[in-house]
């Protein structure tokens, strides 16, 4: 009964939150949806990162790679195709590159996997930089602009899709498979689970949503180049946000992305010269004192109070 009541409360709260976000542009100042769009972007990146890396414990540092692929797909196809098709193409290209990357690197483990994925981002960034300069004879690309309200609702739809897919994966046998890979990969393979296939598939699925977010956000920034699209900071930010909120719970990455995006905006506006220093200190504090994130801290408080 208590479990059912808890699920009902979470469902009601989630529905009210979605309703609030869907109607927010009608009664808030125009700059508010712009700020919330950035939060929604980081929610997508964080939740999609945690979808695969959370249960499997594979530390991917290639978020910027697939986000940037989505951005460049939007820049290249924006003048030729309708916007919804461009967004779909951005996500599919990221998915296919994710499949290829997974096939190549998901046989690696531990810090080898983390180093490979980070190196992949640098490889792609420098390759695109070389291609733009030597072949396309340009520094960057202009992107077809889309009005801010359309971008906002697209990002909200992508957030809902990402969260729903993550929720159903966690509640299905695939969620158990991913957990078994993280807990005891050899044992999972021994009982007949095709570990390699599921790792590749769900890694590519997480890339799908990253590319979708990149394809939409490119139309907000208007101009992109390899340094913007494949910004290495985006490789670490979703990791920090997921750890801050709590990787073991679906609400943790959402909470972490929302709070840290607001915090980063405040730090960047008030302390622009100390922004990265303060962010680094925050990262150390999270690792040292919040190993289970805010969700784990809340659980400990509840146990202590009861």
Domains, number: 1
Number of strands: 2
Count of alpha/pi helices: 14
- Alpha-beta classification: mainly alpha
- If you average the pLDDT, what whole number results? 87
Order of helices and strands: HHHHHEHHHHEHHHHH
Radius of gyration: 19 Å
Descriptive tags:
2 strands, 14 helices, globular, 306 residues, mainly alpha
Task: Lay out the secondary structure.
Layout (H helix, E strand, L loop, with lengths): L1 H26 L3 H26 L6 H15 L5 H23 L4 H25 L6 E2 L5 H23 L2 H11 L1 H6 L4 H27 L1 E2 L1 H4 L3 H13 L5 H20 L4 H15 L3 H13 L1
Antiparallel strand pairs: 1-2
Helix pairs in contact: 1-6, 2-6, 2-7, 2-9, 2-11, 2-12, 3-4, 3-9, 4-9, 6-9, 11-12, 11-14
Task: Give structural notes.
There is one protein chain. The protein has 306 residues and is mainly α. The chain has one domain (29-305). It has helices spanning 2-27, 31-56, 63-77, 83-105, 110-134, 148-170, 173-183, 185-190, 195-221, 226-229, 233-245, 251-270, 275-289, 293-305; strands at residues 141-142, 223-224.
Short summary:
With 306 residues, the protein is mostly helical.
